[in-house]
Structure prediction request, 304 residues.
Amino acid sequence: MAERKPVGRFAPTPSGRMHLGNVFAALIAWVSVRSRDGEMVLRMEDLDTQRTSGEYARVLREDLAWLGLDYDRETPPQSRRGAVYDGYFRRLDQLGLLYPCYCTRSQLHSVNAPHLSDGTYVYPGTCRELTPQQRAAFGRSPAWRVRVPDRLWQVEDLVQGNSTWNLARHCGDMVVRRADGVYVYQLAVTVDDGEAGITEVVRGMDLLSSAPRQMYLQELFGFAHPVYAHVPLLLAPDGRRLSKRDRDLDLGALRVSRKPEQLIGALAFSAGLIDRPGSISARELAKEFSWNKLRRDNLVLRGV
Ligand code: GLU
Prediction:
C-alpha cells in the first residue's frame, strides 16, 4: 500500500521573535514533510494570553515566509478554542477520570513533595479521594486532574530512539485545566494535532517527556498516535542554550544582515545535513533530507 501523505505542523508560541533554535525545529519539520510531498499546518499556541500577542503571530508568519517555510493551512489559535476543549474535558469526566485538585503551588513544589532527579515533581495524588464535603470546604475553584494509569508507554522517536515511560511514576495525575479555567498545553496540543490529522510531530528535544502524556490523551480521545521526532537542542557558538531573551540570535537581528539561505545553510551544516558550510534554500535541502543524517547530540551552531 502506498504511504499516506504525511501531515506535519508548526506549533509556535507567539511570545517573541523566533530564535535560531525555533527556526531549526521548524526547518526540520518542514523538510521532513515536504521531502515526501506532504502537507504542513500552522497553529499558534497562544494559551498564555499574557505572554503572547497577535502582533508576534503576524511577525512569525512573516518570518516563516521569509525563510521559505510555507504551509497549506492555518488552524485557529488555541486562545479561541476553549469551547472545543470543553467538549474533550467533558469526555474525560464521562470516563470517570477527572477530579478537582486544590493543592497550592507551594504545596506542590515543597521539599517534601516527591521529585525526580531532573527537579520535576510527581503528583502524589493528594486530592484524589477527597469527599464532596472536603471539596466544598476549600471554597475556591480547583484545577482538574486526569488520573493516569500505572502502565508503560513506548515512545518510538525518529531521532531519540525508543524510550519507555510510566506516567504514574513520571508525573502522576496530570492537570488538564487550571483553576482559572485555562486548559493546559498537553490537552490543547493533543486535541489540535488530533483534529488537524497531524501524522508527524517534530519539535525540540525538551518536549520529549510530553510525548507519553499526549499519547495517553490521544488514546482516551480516540486519535491515532503521530510519529515523533524530537530534534536536538541548538546551542550558541559559545555553548549557551538559546532562549527568546537572547536577542542576538533571533530573526529580528539576523534578518538585517543575513539571507535566509545563509541561515538555513548554517543550521543544516551544524546538524550534519550538508557536508560543507554554505547557502542552501529550504526547498533544496528537502531534496536531500534524510533522518539518518541528522546528528543526535546537542548541536553547536557553526557557520553563521
Ligand atoms: N508551542 C510549543 C513551543 O513553541 C511547541 C509545542 C509542540 O510542538 O508540541 O515551544
Residues 11-13, 45, 189, 203, 207 surround glutamic acid (CB under 6 Å). The chain has a mean pLDDT of 94. The longest helix spans residues 20-34. The chain has two domains: 7-81+192-300, 82-188.
